Amino acid sequence: HSAITKYHHFDATNTIEIGNFTTIAGYNSVFLTHSINIEQCIQDSNPIVIGDYCFVGSNCMLLGNACLPSYCVLGAKSLLSKPYVEEYSLYAGLPAKIIKSLDKSALYFHRTTGHVW
Q: Looking at residue 45, what is its pLDDT?
């Protein structure tokens, strides 16, 4: 019951996990699992994990090792570059950080079907 809208880029050099009932919304988000390790002069890759009941806004950048916990929102134009653990949170910015807590009773977090009307 997850959804991915159009015009997103998924570099699957490593794994990208997208949880149940999660929406990759809008357009032009980029999921990059690989990079260059300048210390070792090698191509390196790390997984990206998006939890259950998450919402990723338009034009976000997610890098290897990034983790958006379940029941979270990643605001539009944000850079998620490391793992976070705090659920029911709005993350946003460059780099993303917690902006505020989200209401655990929000209907988005209690859907039984994937499509949002």
A: 96
Strands 23-24 and 42-45 come out as unpaired
Strands (E), 1-117: 3-4, 9-11, 16-18, 23-24, 30-32, 34-37, 42-45, 48-50, 55-56, 61-63, 67-68, 73-74, 79-80, 89-92, 97-101
Cα–Cα–Cα angle for 23, 110, 19, nearest 5°? 40
* CA neighbours closer than 13 Å in the CB half-sphere of residue 69: 13
Query: What's the pLDDT tens digit per position in 33-54?
Result: 999 999 999 999 999 999 999 9
pLDDT for 116 equals 85
Mean pLDDT of the chain: 97
Name which of 73, 64, 65, 60 is nearest 101 in CA terms. 73
